[in-house]
Write a structure and sequence with these properties.
This protein is mostly beta strands. It is built from 1 helix and 10 strands. An 8-stranded antiparallel beta barrel has the order 1-2-3-4-5-6-7-10. The longest helix has 16 residues. Keywords: Signal.
Length: 175
């Protein structure tokens, strides 16, 4: 009989949890009929010149950037991220968005070779969004991995850095 009580408690817990509303999900603020679902564009993020693709869904904007750094060897770099609409300021879906990103955040010359740093951060963006285009200005704060030279001396420490970005994307059609 004592083995049945924990089983009944577990079944009750799962049924109660399943029956509750899902309040932990954010509000869907971007109706699909008002924006283009897929967008392609270009931009600059610190020293990274990139092409980007953006996916607008009801909960925000997911993006991927692919490009090269404006340094001597022009190493390859990528970033991915997501922005959630925080506050709309006018017509269309223009407003402030908060987000997070990860990927290559900087390039630095180490031992006569350009090395890229992986890192992550958060950003605050002002997005001009309508059914035809997305224009984004953002300021982020992130940190990258530690870089060492061939002697093992640290040439770039893990410390917060500001990242500025601008992208312009055009819609590929509506959903």
């Amino acid at each position: 009989m004592t083995r049945v009580y924990p089983l009944l408690a577990l079944i009750t817990l799962f049924n109660t949890a399943y029956a509750q509303d899902h309040h932990y999900l954010p509000d869907a603020k971007l109706p699909p009929e008002s924006v283009s679902t897929w967008n392609l564009g270009a931009g600059v993020t610190q020293q990274l010149i990139h092409l980007n693709t953006e996916w607008v869904n009801p909960y925000g904007i997911a993006y991927a950037k692919v490009g090269f750094f404006l340094t001597d060897d022009s190493p390859f770099g990528t970033q991915i991220g997501f922005r959630y609409p925080y506050y709309f300021t006018g017509k269309d879906k223009n407003g402030y968005y908060v987000g997070a990103y990860a990927g290559h955040i900087a390039s630095k010359q180490v031992d006569n070779k350009d090395e890229t740093r992986l890192g992550a951060g958060v950003d605050l963006a002002y997005v001009l969004l309508n059914k035809d285009r997305i224009s984004t200005f953002s300021v982020g704060l992130g940190a990258g991995e530690e870089l060492k030279n061939r002697e093992g001396v640290v040439v770039e420490h893990i410390e917060p850095k500001i990242q500025f970005s601008y992208t312009l994307s055009m819609g590929l059609g509506r959903k």
